[in-house]
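Q: My labmate handed me this sequence with no annotations at all. I'd like to see what the chain might look like in three dimensions before we decide whether it's worth expressing. Could you predict it?
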Amino acid sequence: MRILLIEKDGQDYLKLRQLVDEQQDDPVTMEWAPNHENAIRLIKKNNYGIFLIAFYDESQQSFIDWLYEYTTAPIIFLIKSWFPKAAPRLDSLRTEYINKAHISWALIKQMVHHFETLHQFQETGNKFLSAFMQASTPLCLLNSVGTIIEINDNALTFLGLSHEEVVSTPAWDIPWNKLTDKLRRRFHIAIRIARRAKTAKYEINIKGRTNKATTLEVAVTPIVNSQSEVIWILVEAHDLSAYKLAEQQLLQASQSDQLTGLPNRHFFLESLERAMLNVQNNKNYRIAVLYIDLDRFRVVNESLGPDMGDWLIMEIALRLQNCLPSNGLLARSGGDEFMILLDELSNLTDAIRLARTINNEVAQAFLLDGYEVQTSASIGIAYSTYHQSSNDLLRDADIAMYRAKAGGKSCYSVFNSNMHAEAMSRLQIEAELNRGIEQNNFVLVYQPQIDLQNKALLGVEALVRFYHPKYGLMSPLKFIPILEDTGIIIKIGEWILQTALKQLKKWQDEGLSIKHVAVNLSATQFRNKHLLESVKEALTMSGVAAEYLELELTESLLLEDTESAVRTLKQFKDMGIRVTIDDFGTGYSSLSYLRRFPVDSLKIDKSFIKGVVSEPEDIAITVATIDMAHALGLNVIAEGVENEEQRDFLRDHGCDCAQGYFYSPPINHEDFSKWATTYRETLNPTGTINTP
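A: Here is what I predict for the chain of 692 residues:
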């Protein structure tokens, strides 16, 4: 930092120079100009980051005006009193005062930080300034030592002064004929209180511009930054009616959601607290809370942009309001979540009926700027009990909402006591999952994929398993959703990919003929912007060629954002990676999207394979899927093959590949090596197995 001190007293310069030389934290150089002429010469030759000016009288105003025009650097005036009798016309966003008696390098650094904060205010405070200028209450904004930096029109009208007469003037020095010595003293005291980060209030009886007697309440309020430093002082002056109006407006702003205009979470919690008091005082009084979370909102936000996401939130808020009964309070919790309080319930089933209505309304398509957007809502319902607190009730509704989301979305769930225990267990599992990789609690198991025509081993699917320290081997159906919800799946997914490819490389080096390893990708992984880099890194680390990697994705995942999905799949194909649509038949199963997606294979879901030799509907779906896939040039994999009859049916109808317990359950890499060796030995030269 380069500083120019403009100070006629050489002794004061030496004292300040000593302060600067003693500080060790920041590289600083200080130069001295004893008068304006020397200062102008130095300023024209050099770039200074800050100016320190000893201020004494109004004769410096022309120099200060020149300095404001010539440079944008901040200026600190060195004064002998916090309230000088005269002050220059100032650019309040570039100027501050320091009392000479209290000067220190730390204080100068604080002022520099203060200037940065002011400029941040200038850049980000437009909304505040707009509200400030339009407020019906007379308002005045001061800097930390009492200089006026902005004043609204109502205050100017009351004072009978112009903007130029007031701004950049110390507040106690404005040319107002009603500013008595008593008022000056009161104002000085109020500013001192505000400088200590406390609000000062007092009443004064005065006649305004129209000579009408008015009792004003004056509030002098400090505004602090994130370091709790006072950076501005807000002065409000109003009569009782204006004060109440302003108070009501501020209260409404603090209790409203800016996007939708609905009550916000803070207001909702206060209302819920009052309702719970009624519950606790009357055993027959009942209330309910509905916690609403939008399904697939993140997909809309990421694919169409945040503006469209905001539009969708506003449209949903309107639909929810139309569903609301007279005893209901709707609030936006934040993001894509809403809350409803049903007060003084006559029938507990009213909450369920409302949830069903909301599900039906939200499920109807939204038309946003030509885009048809489909979403749904997961709703948790919690009823009050005599001993519950408001926090307990809201927590239980939130837990029930997550149960609804886990149950398939676009539905509701009513809280019961078992859910709380399950939620606590889930938190414990989350913590264990977070530590799972470091503690080697995750393992991969492998299930073979067999060519149905020549019975050769084609590849393997890598599946993750988790050994919980307390519960032992945990079902993927229990821990995979938690990995998804918490985002841990990103880290675990990278580990799965790297581990599976390294194992494939090891098998290939050992002479096992395995054409690919299949790895599942979750929706969270697929949306991750670093996915391609992670896949490339895993291939590089393992030394496996891209053609040996097969990625499996569900059809529902691909349909969340088809345009983005097509782009990502093309990037995979360009790398040489194979792509399979997993669980085919359980979603939309549309020919139109199959033609668009650059994939290699379809995997028929095991739910159809189970009845493939006995259930006419499963037979029809399976045969149609095989024929359709082959017509599109795609391979077909059947999962969940458990017996010879299923295998023979699939083979006879042209299915390309199968996996399931008929061949082998998912097993660890050591057991798979043994199984593959044994399986290869059972094949005779014609490719058939020597056993029945």
